[in-house]
Specification:
Blueprint lengths: L2 H11 L14 H15 L4 H10 L3 H8 L11 H21 L4 E7 L5 H12 L7 E8 L2 H9 L1 E2 L15 E4 L2 E4 L7 E5 L11 E5 L4 H4 L2 H14 E8 L13 E5 L2 E4 L3
Parallel strand pairs: 1-2, 1-7, 2-6, 7-8
Antiparallel strand pairs: 3-5, 4-5, 8-10, 9-10
């Protein structure tokens, strides 16, 4: 499959899925390889045949959507963000929670992939300055059931742990070529299969992490709607954390930008 042919196909197909080409430029080869395998598995000749199949059988769009899911993740990814969470954001949110007379922090990891992000949050509370009298309740959602199966196993290659602080290594045990997070260190993480484009949790949260998903891969209209709905799910004074190269596509009246990748829900 020629790169030019795959690029042209993705520029046609992605808007049909509520996605945008700009987010896929750097990862297109991964998607193109998956497309090639799918086309071969269906016994089709090329992308033109696959496009005809999509137009004749709209149900194939769900399979194409799955082929376009990018899950580049590891523990403690973007180390500066995690240090800011540990030493500034989580202590601040814990103080606000105590002021409300509560002893819990409700956190949502949207697009959690195979679990590295929510488990990193759990480890922050187990090992770091985030440890306090406020107990975390961590909800982790993703649209891909296969990734969620991996998250439940909590076993990862060594590349997923390359940024993990040395003091955290005791939380993992090596089993063959994988490193598995010990059951006692997995924390209060609840995994739920959910596509953020179609549904959101009904709860309200002190902190929402939506990193390297909606505001990278989805088209602007979808991003705008998701931004509004995420703001609605935040407690007053709660924080929305994006990827370090992301920003909201529009001004959301309920949110104040604290850092390029961090937003706070307005008081009142």
């Amino acid at each position: 499959m020629r790169d030019a042919d795959c690029t042209a196909f993705l520029q046609w197909a992605l808007p049909r899925l509520g996605m945008r080409w700009a987010g896929f430029r750097r990862v297109r080869r991964q998607v193109c390889k998956r497309l090639g395998r799918r086309i071969a598995g269906l016994g089709l000749r090329d992308l033109a045949d696959y496009r005809a199949l999509l137009e004749a059988h709209p149900e194939e769009s769900a399979r194409l959507d799955a082929l376009c899911r990018i899950s580049i993740s590891r523990f403690y990814r973007d180390q500066g963000v995690w240090r800011t969470l540990e030493h500034e954001i989580l202590p601040h949110l814990a103080e606000r929670s105590r002021a409300r007379g509560e002893t819990r922090l409700r956190i949502w990891s949207a697009g959690c992939a195979s679990g590295e992000e929510p488990y990193t949050l759990a480890l922050l509370f187990a090992f770091g300055a985030a440890k306090s009298d406020c107990r975390p309740e961590i909800l982790a959602t993703d649209a891909d059931p296969h990734l969620l199966e991996r998250a439940h196993r909590a076993c990862y290659p060594d590349t997923s742990l390359r940024d993990v602080p040395a003091r955290w290594h005791t939380a993992f045990e090596q089993l063959g070529e994988e490193y598995c997070l010990r059951a006692d260190d997995r924390g209060p993480v609840c995994f739920v299969e959910q596509d953020i484009r179609q549904a959101l949790p009904e709860s309200r949260f002190d902190l929402i992490l939506c990193r390297n998903l909606a505001f990278t891969y989805f088209e602007t209209a979808v991003q705008t709607e998701i931004a509004r709905r995420l703001a609605e799910r935040l407690e007053t004074g709660g924080m929305l954390l994006l990827g370090i190269h992301e920003a909201l596509p529009c001004w959301v009246p309920m949110l104040v930008q604290e850092r390029p990748w961090l937003y706070r829900k307005r008081e009142g």
